[in-house]
Amino acid sequence: MAVDMTEVRQLFFEESSENLDVMESNLLDLEIGPINKELVNSIFRAAHSIKGGAGIFKFEQVVSFAHVAETLLDEMRKGEHLVTQPIIDLLLRAVDILRMMLSSLKENTECNWLEVGACQTRLKAFLKTPLEGESAYGELTMSGKFSPSPQSAPVKLPGPTSPLPAPTISSTPVATPRSLEVTALTPVAPTATSAMPVALTHTGAPLPVTPTEPTAALAETPAPAAPTNIEGWQIIFKPHLGMLKTGNDPINLFRELAGLGALEVKANTHQVPAFTDLTPHSCHLNWELMLHANVAKSVIEEIFEWVENECDLQITPLPILSAEDEEQTATTVNDELTLTTVDSDDDSMSSKRSLINFPPNFDGDETGVNEPLPNSPSAGNQLQSDRGDTKPLSPVSPVETPLLSTTESPAVTSSLHSLDPHPLEGPISPRGNSNQAPETGSSIRVGIDKVDSLINLVGELVITQSMLDQVGENFDHSKLSLLRDGLSQLERNTRELQESVMRIRMLPISYSFNRFPRLVHDLSVQLGKKVELKLSGVHTELDKTVLEKMSDPLVHLVRNALDHGIEMPEQRRETGKPEVGLLHLHAFHQGGNIIIQISDDGAGFNLARIRDKAIKQRLLNREDNPSEEQLYEFVFQPGFSTADQVSDLSGRGVGMDVVRRNIRSLGGTIEIQSKPGRGTTFNIRLPLTLAILDGQLVRVGTEIYILSLLSIMESLRVKPQLVNTLAGKAEVYKLRDEYIPILRLYELFDLVVHCTTQLEQGLLVIVEGDGQKIGLFVDELLSQQQIVIKSLESNFKQMQGISGATILGDGSVALILDVAGLIQLFHHKKKIPTLRSTFTLGVSA
Amino acid sequence: MSQLTTTHTTNKYLTFVLATEEYAVDILRVQEIKGWSKVTKIPNTPHYICGVINLRGTIVPIVDLRSRFGLEHLEYGPMTVVVVVKVLSNAKERIMGVVVDAVSDVYDVSDSDIKPPPDFGTVISIEFVRGLATVEEKMVIVLDIDRLLNSDELAILEHI
What is the rounded CA–CA span in Å between residue A175 and residue A145? Predict the structure, then answer.
């Protein structure tokens, strides 16, 4: 059966690059000394997945290379090696090589095989036990038998004629699969094969990658002659109930099997429930298959590879029959969900789910929201940020329309990482859901919660539509108000849908930050400096486009900080600083902007030198006396560099101007703060017209305001005995051992209607802004929800204390409060000199 | 003087009523006319800024022209009209809404028919009046909405 593999290939490359990232970050986390099993295991798994995937696409060089790396990792986790810097460096190098190989395969370009070979040899040198079977299969490789067949591997792989150093490849274990086949097919095999575990993947042992046969099989050619004679195979295939949900259709598997030879299929229907209890999405059948073909077992296994986690599978050579399995483990519900399930067939289901999903106490269902977190690191984390403090007070009123969806089915609790192999079946399945495969190189991975909230919204839309439908039948004037309600609901649904779709584009900045540990590691080794990298605010969400455009400027600034900013260890010691320099990347929301700070504690800018250079380049007259800001301005001039010598890292004066141009093209600004000898901070300010905020809705009188959840420390009911006045005017609240000023929002905002003025009847929300704490007095807390920030400035002007506005579920506008601005406004209004707003209590606490 | 001279450019103007007076704005500046909807107040703004509304996803400030001109306040009701206009300020286009009593008509007015307003000294501010025009025997005040609604100026004009 001809399969269009390009989409799957694309997926493989994406996943491999993720796996490489995993390897890289875990390698950097490894500490010298005894083995951290957990980390090594996860590195191993990542390497293994790459090898497995590469095997499917016959990327032999990748397989062989990954195999060597994997063997080394395997030895490490068995405790045969200690973690040493050379090993870490070598493995990091291996990650680079793999990345290079994959990208050259992806782009159909030649890659540097010399480097691959060199690295592979170095890896092998570390191995305690030499790889088995090398010499025996070296010849095979050399004879060119393993060059890929053109049908299945559209990528041009270097054949034996490629400039690959011969000794390297000859000793690779590419050939070992063949040896596996042979053993599997010899009469000795049955004992081993009947004990075949559910999972088909071998760990540790060389993967049964068959380079030639499956190619032929996939291309529907008759089975090639197998090394030994065998009558055929009996396959007992018991899918789990949830297998269909992964988009896998058994019929496709059978068709592929039938392509190998004569196939008998017996379906076992005794587990099919009564018609009334039947759910069409569950697979109740299981099958007994007889394949009369002389093929290798691994060929069959490969066909079932995509469903290996969703079924119980037994493959035994004929005529040996294996004992029937015990009762199928029907309760094992598949814990994976792919985008594929969102097809037209599921409309009814999703609308049903959305009905279930909206219990009135939705907001209280915190656990539901939090549950998927452990499984979906990429998606879930940013959703729940710092809501802990306010939780007890939050469920005052239900969220009108949840943007975050609860997780009803276990299927939802997975991350999109489980997208893994299943999409293979997508394109070939008759229901044909091929929309998930990216057409071009750019794609986006979305947290399942976001997709789920979309499904919910679409479900709601369907309900609204059917409601309007009903109104439309036999319409008369009495139904006018119903129609109006329906229409406004429709409007709201549409808007929410729009916002949800926008949310899909938002990614946490960690996507960009995560590459820096490696960069810093490499550069500091290269430069001989000691640097500690600190990342914070990694869950701040940014639009994907902004994120991508920011990534080069950030790399440049980090390089600059390492190259020019942080000094050599000796120099640091002389100036009394710790030897290890600190580089801090920090991202946060401020006043409707996203701020990315890159600060180092290095030498700082040398203003005198900038001045000299500017004079030399005739940007400045000798008698001019520019201000600090003006001098910093020169740094952003093209061709301006204060570095004494040009290194391969920086110093060419190309860069800062590009950095600023990129940031400006996004509508942002960049500022420099620098103290000689103390360090430099770059502040990048990006507007966030698209940005999302976790907001807490508060009510003051009839108005609703929104506070960023991140700024809220806690909220509490006021105990009158803890309220004191200061100078007869300002009120302070004693919270544990601090006195916190009370800001009555209604007073500050001159609100007169229906406001609670008695402190004990309202709530005090303790917020922090600009390092100051203040207690905002509000009437009550409403729900928490994700807020799409709309600019107030675009049609109006910037207001102090207000960072923007948003549109609530009912279409009305609510203002987002900017805590730092509020505090300033408060001081201004109260005419209190900006004294330190919090001071600790000396004795009485 | 409804006959128009052809030598001058003629523009269409939308007129609206405030108390007893009729005001005109260039119709090309009018984006839409909508009914009154609930506004969200913005604290610490001049009294004539009613607040902001959500206009299909954009936040649009609403200015009450009655309070802007110091006229007596009229309760907002279902008949209250908001004229959404495009305002140019600093080469940037902003969308704003003005609350008026009622929309009146659309007239063709030639540029030459717009006479400069007489000088009233400092009694009333006329800087946002572009001129006076006579249409069908009535006097129509042609507004310069860029000046009227330029938010940079709002703060300054507050003191007049």
Answer: 10
